[in-house]
Amino acid sequence: MTATESRRRTSPRPLGRGDLRLLLLSRIGQGPHHGYELIQQISEMFVRVYTPSAGSVYPLLADFENQRWVRAEEDGGRKRYHITSLGQAQLKQRATEVEDALLRARHSARVITRANMPPALRDAMHDFTHSVMARHGRWQNADIERITALLEQATALVQDVPQG
């Protein structure tokens, strides 16, 4: 196995130090959420290739409560977390850090997804992207229509493949 193959098979750490904390507070800042909803939202950011554990999320939520950045209210036997004015101030103070964490999460999601993609598919997508860039914007309408139709067909095929 070459060094490149080894790197491709090793998934990077999905989040940087402190990123989950920032992402959770940011999500609560967008509106009240249950802990489970927050876990699912972070998972969706990573196209479900990475899901934070309850053991990493709930202690952070408890810490937010201790810091008085959020308040929790009982909602059907579960806690719903609301941002407080202190939490809003924390988000405002750390706005750049939150944006950086979001960018790292998006990048990490792409890297993880690419690393978990079958090599033949990954290589074909790379070749396609390289070919599109090599056109330097020189397109004929007929080519655009034909390639768009093929991409729509490929998208439909991928969406129809049962996920197991």
Automatic annotation (TrEMBL):
Pfam families: PadR. Residues 24-92 form the Transcription regulator PadR N-terminal domain. SUPFAM superfamilies: Winged helix' DNA-binding domain. It comes from the Bacteria. This is PadR family transcriptional regulator.
